Amino acid sequence: MKVALLIDNLNSGGAQRQIVNLAIGLKAEGADVTVITYTLGEHFQDELRHHQIDLSAIARPSKFKTFLGVFSEIKRLQPDVVCAYMFVPSLMALLTKIFFWRPKVFVSERFIEHLMTDWAKPYCRALYPLAAGIIANSQTQAEILKKKLPMLRARIRHIPNCVDTDTFKPAHELAISPGTLKMIGVGRLTEYKNVKVLIEAVRMLHFDRKLPVSMKWVGREYEERGVENTYYVECVNAVNEKGLSGIWTWEGQQKGLAELYRTSDVLVHPSYGEGFPNVVCEALATGTPVIASNVIDHPMIIQEGHNGFLFDPHNAQELADKITTFFKMPPATRLAMKENSRLTATRYFSREVMIGSYLEFFRKA
Fold it and tell me: Which residues are in the Glycosyltransferase subfamily 4-like N-terminal domain (predicted)?
């Protein structure tokens, strides 16, 4: 099977992480895979090279010429399947289908409905009848799509994200570190990540409850290249104004996430909503429990007291309470949570499970 995977760039985003996982998994199953991009971003480029996966980067002098470049590349490759992540790449893939009928085109929506503000969404969805399949990485979004597009219900499939459980794995021996509770948050700094509620919760823990805690936030600090991220600036100012600069660090974009999870006690993921969070799967795979907002698919992943806790994302007090509960757990209970976290990831989010679902969909659609 010859497969072209289309996405805007290889920046450090969740969709980029998953399309790289898909490329690696498909190649391991014997597929001939090429990844096509058309804007700057090289965070995952070395990983593709390591696995000897072809990368075709289209120059972008203008939007029209970008489409012509993508169209020409797909026509040159003659793939059996084109799979595009996100609306603009999906729109390009579906327009290509009009002029070049051969490949099956699959499109993937990676966010939850109310967060999808992309200009291309209505145009892309108008062309969904041309798609062989429509993939949502969250069960919630798959159900929303089935209601919005009842005529295409049979073509809509929920395929959750995967994690490389060989890279994201616990330390050789699971253990609980005494003393300071080391918390980590991961994600690009945007409003829907809800970092300000986390900042207020950390203030309560540090000043009101006198708990020994530390916080690392890992993720790129710019919205787009060369554009200041005002939300990040606001968060930095909030940390400083609340007197937390001694216990809160901004780590920026990082590649060694597995080790950062392993050296943390808990991932705190306060997002208002997204598709299916990579960081939750990655943390669980390393045996790191997760305290996550009670939204979207999080309740399907996190079981209270089993592998983490859930909280109202609008309630800093409740978040502080859940962190306090975790901190005060006996070591044996926290160790069991670490073991349960790893088991959740290996059972539901392995690369083999995701690739099997994609291959079945590609072949049967």
Answer: 13-166
